[in-house]
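Suppose you are handed a protein chain with no further information: no name, no annotation, nothing but its sequence. What can you learn? This example shows the usual starting point.
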Amino acid sequence: MRGLVIINGYPNAEKFIRQGERIRSALQAEGIETELMKNGEVSACINADGRIDGAILTRYNFAIYLDKDKYLGRMLESAGLRLFNSAAAVENCDDKLLTYLALGACGLRLAKSIPAPLCYTKNATPNSAFLENTAKSLGFPLVAKKSFGSFGAGVRLVHGMPELLKTEEEWLHEPHFYQQYEYVSCGKDYRIIVIGGKAVGCMQRIAQAGEFRSNIELGGVGRKAAPDERYLRAAELAAQTLGLDYCGVDLLETEDGPVLCEVNSNAFFDGFEQVTGLDVAALYAKYVARVMKN
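A reasonable first move is to predict its three-dimensional structure. Written in structure tokens, the prediction is:
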């Protein structure tokens, strides 16, 4: 059996390569010959008859897809390659609002969210009626989020109409949305890693002073956590509903239980491993080996 680990062709930090290497090494420890490639190194094309070139199928049995390139993922699946995670699952996680739409009927509690109208017109101005309705529905402060982004980028706390108008002006031509602010969970959340539909561990992330975002990349710190079963089951339900083989689920803690914040299909696990003592790469590799052998 041969496997392929695919990362983005333009990694902007060493940790992207390190994560791929860790998974590749773990798969090889399971007896699976595995290569690491950037997405631009993977040969794939749409032929004149509309078929996807399936030459890659003669070399690999599966691919660990650590990228968010929705086109390559769909092409590889069309050619018959098994992806961990599937192209559709990655796409639904990459777009934060699509995540909410995909989870809408599964019974999870979600943060109340309002999508901003998409704007394609140069020199347009924000829709005042939309802003007034958003403020009335969500109250202040509220959370503004770009639909695409990682590590806390494109997320801000908005305290009043002047800030809301400024945000809408700045983001007018980018997909974004607004969410109700959860006071109880300010500056902290739970990151739960789910593999094969089962929660394998949990880390609580705590923001640095003066910051409401708990991302480690923004100075937040992590500690091993053991929340009640509602949080673990919520993370598993999110992963199962989205069809994810592997993910990190971020949950907000409220007086009424977990509220889903985001789901990351390619969650980094360096900090998580340091805090929990788990070997996430090995757990993921064992799951992939078990699936492929069955």
